[in-house]
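BUG: 3D viewer hangs when loading the predicted structure for this chain

Environment: internal workstation, default settings.
Expected: structure renders.
Actual: progress bar stalls at 90%.

Input used:
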Amino acid sequence: MAKISFTLKNITREIEKSEKKLSAIRKKVVKADQRKIDLQLRGLKQCHTKVKNFCRPPTLYGQAFTTKSKNE
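Structure tokens produced before the viewer hung:
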């Protein structure tokens, strides 16, 4: 039986990096753009929460998932 293994660690790192960058930029822009950044930050936080709840790893997002192939 073939098994496929993958991890979400890189995805969560990129989400965290994006959150930090947007938070740093937020203070430097006008109010209208701050609202857009707030919406983007809210979306990133929701995405991060979903990944965190779906993948409850023993270590920081290092959980590996395995799936069965359709042929077997």
